[in-house]
Specification:
flat, mainly alpha, single chain
């Protein structure tokens, strides 16, 4: 009876671990690059406002970070408002259609359907 080589037995597990670690390192690097890019963008914005160093620069950078943090919240709020407006529009169109059908029924001398 021959024994299997332990490296062959666990080769698939080693490959999977290598793929997982590689993906984790790549995603961390891209997140770090994004953070640095955001910081450079905020720094340029503050420089355009005339805050190059000191308290003004710190205050400006904090405001930029707050703006960036609130962007997701503002976008979701805008999306909720848009959805509510769309629902209201659908209801308005439904009522207009119902009233138009009721008016046609009256002109034909029929009893119109009640529009809730």
């Amino acid at each position: 009876m021959t024994r299997q080589n332990p490296v062959r037995r666990y080769r698939t597990a080693f490959v999977m671990l290598a793929v997982i670690f590689g993906t984790a390192i790549a995603s961390h690097a891209s997140a770090t690059d994004w953070g640095r890019e955001a910081q450079r963008e905020d720094s340029k914005t503050c420089e355009r406002f005339g805050a190059t160093h000191g308290r003004e620069y710190t205050r400006c950078m904090l405001e930029q970070q707050r703006r960036r943090d609130d962007a997701v919240l503002n976008a979701s709020e805008q999306q909720r408002n848009n959805a509510e407006a769309a629902r209201n529009n659908v209801e308005t169109v439904r009522r207009m259609r119902c009233n138009r059908e009721a008016e046609k029924a009256r002109k034909r001398g029929e009893r119109p359907q009640w529009c809730p």
